[in-house]
């Protein structure tokens, strides 16, 4: 899936609405802070913590870049 923050593999046959938890806007990397532009209040300072920030939107998985 190419939705921001998802990166999961999926099968179109089982791709129902709500299966994908993702972010609606791209990531921001500013100095040492990392965050999603749709969730500026959830900042991380290392890669692992950044990747653990849960998506703020639900929908279908997509193979099209947002």
From TrEMBL:
Q: Which PANTHER family match?
A: CHPADIPLOID STATE MAINTENANCE PROTEIN CHPA, CYSTEINE AND HISTIDINE-RICH DOMAIN-CONTAINING PROTEIN 1
Name assigned to this protein: CHORD domain-containing protein
Return one GO MF term.
Answer: metal ion binding
Q: Which ranges carry the CHORD domain? A: 1-61
UniProt KW keywords: Metal-binding, Repeat, Zinc
Matches recorded under InterPro entries: CHORD_dom (IPR007051), CHRD1 (IPR039790)
Keyword tRNA-binding assigned to the entry: answer is: no
Q: What is the residue range of the signal peptide feature?
A: none
Q: Which Pfam families match?
A: CHORD (PF04968)
Q: Could you read off the lineage of the organism from its UniProt record?
A: Eukaryota, Sar, Stramenopiles, Ochrophyta, Pelagophyceae
UniProt KW Zinc keyword: yes
């Amino acid at each position: 899936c190419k939705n921001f923050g998802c990166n999961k593999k999926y099968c179109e046959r089982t791709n129902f609405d709500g299966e994908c938890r993702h972010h609606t806007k791209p990531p921001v990397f500013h100095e040492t802070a990392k965050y999603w532009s749709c969730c500026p209040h959830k900042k991380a300072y290392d890669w692992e913590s950044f990747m653990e920030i849960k998506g703020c939107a639900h929908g279908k998985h997509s193979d099209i870049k947002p």
